[in-house]
Amino acid sequence: MCSYGKESLGRLAIALGGSVIVPNLPSTIFNFLDHEDWQIHYSVVTAIGVISEGCSKVVIHAVGQLSMHMSLQFQEPYHQLVLPDLIAVLDDFDNPRLQLNSYVA
């Protein structure tokens, strides 16, 4: 993914916010996580990372999707980094939808 594309995607995520970005991700980006072509797979993971910088809901949703689609490559190496933050979100009673996404992830 070129730097211009990454910057544009990041700005789009920040401008639109999670309420627009999150509902459209499963039908577009996450369908390509299991793609055989490494370049497409790399682009998807990069795009998720770029989008997640602008939206906390995307981060939690992305963690859930990465855990499901790339369990061996994601869960074992990163569980000690990710779980404390997901548990902290569970205590955020002002954002019940975010809590639910954290629980599912």
TrEMBL record:
Biological processes per GO annotation: protein import into nucleus
Domain of life: Eukaryota
Keywords annotated in UniProt: Cytoplasm, Protein transport, Repeat, Transport
InterPro entries given in the database record: ARM-like (IPR011989), ARM-type_fold (IPR016024), Importin_beta (IPR040122)
Entry's Gene Ontology cellular component terms: cytoplasm
Subcellular location as annotated: Cytoplasm
Coiled coil residues, start to end: none
Protein name, UniProt field: Uncharacterized protein
